[in-house]
Amino acid sequence: xxxxxxxxxxxxxxxxxxxxxxxxxxxxxxxxxxxxxxxxxxxxxxxxxxxxxxxxxxxxxxxxxxxxxxxxxxxxxxxxxxxxxxxxxxxxxx
Length: 94
Prior knowledge:
1 helix, 6-stranded antiparallel beta sheet, mainly beta, globular, 56% strand, 6% helix, Immunoglobulin-like
């Protein structure tokens, strides 16, 4: 297995999630948060979720709300999908 930087995930009572190893937050709303970590894309699903702490220099994140599930997604990056949000014309003219 490859050696990774610090990657720690803890959940306290499904109401508070702490994560170390965050590199980029791709998207977020109260039901879903998608972010790049040093171990791949992580997708959080829940209700009433809010990012209460984010420090990308340290790679730390705290989310509060009701957490229903989480999933690591292989072979994707939230940064690579950023161009998808642009209009078709903007992507052609680039």
